Amino acid sequence: ADKPSPSISAITRGEARTTTTRPETTQTQSPKRDPATMASDAKVPAVAVPGTALGLATNYHAGHGTHVYDGQVVASLLGRVTVTQPDKAPGAQAKRLTKITARAAEELPTISVTRHEKRREVLPDVGSVVLCRVVRLVPKQAIVSIQQVGSTVLDTEWQGVIRAQDVRATEKDKVKIYESFKPGDTVRAQVISLGDQANYYLSTASNELGVIMATSEAGNDMVPLSWKEFKDPVTGVSELRKVAKPD
């Protein structure tokens, strides 16, 4: 006897079972990183200031703008952090390691810090307001080191002189240098002359000019008491200075 023909719906279900396929998946390769790239590892900062720990010296070779301290590569400059991978020797084949060994220095990536931009050197000019540190005193003048012009901190310090006649605007003949400044004081002054090749001539003959930071003989930071005195808040002892009017 003839076998009954399968129903159309059964054939359809059978074809569906035999023709069902899984969707194809494609793998995309991540783009290759340039061997010299800006630091992107979460453990490595993108920007560093002097003293920032960048990584272990066993993992990185200290490059430009860095140094090794206490087993760490530390930033020496303010700037951007760059990690440069080592160049592979041509034709070198990877060797199968049978034990864990420390990488050789030439196999370590180099970590560097570079300044954001090349700054133009700023020079003191007549009329410039500068911050300086008193280096030493002589009978008629204070020798200072100019460290900042306006808001710009100098890479190179310049020597300046504050003469007794330029300390204050009145009673110039009564000015005593050792009663106006002490070595180590930070002074706000104004350039009044370019002087000779060795020194800039500075003046503190204005209310807002003079000593802004001073340390007492006991080694404590002092606070301004008047236009001619600082006071040690610990010992209570006052010392004479040509005091700048507080901002």
TrEMBL record:
All copies of domain S1 motif, residue ranges: 125-205
SUPFAM superfamilies in the record: Nucleic acid-binding proteins (SSF50249), Ribosomal L27 protein-like (SSF110324)
Amino acid composition bias (Polar residues), ranges on this chain: 1-10
InterPro entries: Csl4, EXOSC1_C, Exosome_cplx_N_dom, NA-bd_OB-fold, S1_domain
GO biological process, one term: RNA processing
Region Disordered, residue ranges: 1-42
Gene Ontology terms for molecular function: RNA binding
GO CC entries: cytoplasm; nuclear exosome (RNase complex); nucleolus
Keyword Cytoplasm among record annotations: yes
Keywords: Cytoplasm, Exosome
Predominant localisation class: nucleus
Subcellular location: Nucleus, Nucleolus
Biased composition (Low complexity): 17-29
Protein's recorded name: S1 motif domain-containing protein
Organism the protein comes from: Lomentospora prolificans
